[in-house]
Known about the structure:
alpha+beta, globular, 17% helix
Amino acid sequence: MSSDDFFVAAEAAGRPFRLSDGTAVELPLCGYEGEMMLATFTVSAAKARSLIPAADLRPLRLTPGRALLFIVALEYRRKSIGPYREFMIVIPVQLGHRADIPLLPALLQERWPGFGIYLTHIGVTTEIARIVGWELLGFPKFIARTSYDEQPTWRSCTVTEGGCTLFSLAVQKPRRLRQREHGFEVYSLSPFDGRLYTVPYKNRMRVGTRYGRRSARLDLGNHPLVDELQALDLAPAPLAARYATDFCLITQVPPEPKPVRDWNDPRYIYRRQAAGSTESAA
């Protein structure tokens, strides 16, 4: 148990869940200590929209034809299911049927009503984190190696899987960090049964932002995920990058997921799962 007020309600609401391997875990999950880096790019708005199996989830657009995409690297040094590292590729979205306008929602992001993120790819470094994602949260997690390099003004991570490099991401550290706390939703299509999950999150961190093409550097490798990322017409340079310390996160219990009809997801991990190869997908 933590003495930090940020976690009190989540710890008190803990419910036990049993995973398929017999492991018992509690939700909400609590990430007590971590570090985050995030780079913002643009992609084709139409191609981003084609990945999202829900009419009321729409990508945040910077211009009529360009949407936002985040590449995120997280290091959980202390979490209720043990420490691990994680990367995510996500499309920021807005939920609802209000006017789908470009620019303003993209600029306001977390302050925009209905803000959330749609998860397209996620890799973790431990098996317990992978199983929790697949069985409780609807996340298509797979095992990937993530290593970090720390410099006075930069932090970088390199992600590999199956002997292939996915990418190396370096983020420039900001001069100042400020305390932030907010809630948001993560949406994901379950690789098991094709239902759409909505997972509520709450985080707190000390974070700063750099802007411009020099704020981050992304070097892509040779992997099916990279092919899918490039197929979105990924911009060669970032718009901005964030770096956060004292990163805390609460993963709430998701409500009942919604069925999605007649949706054939094109991503490679869903293709492998549909072929009946869970282990190869992992």
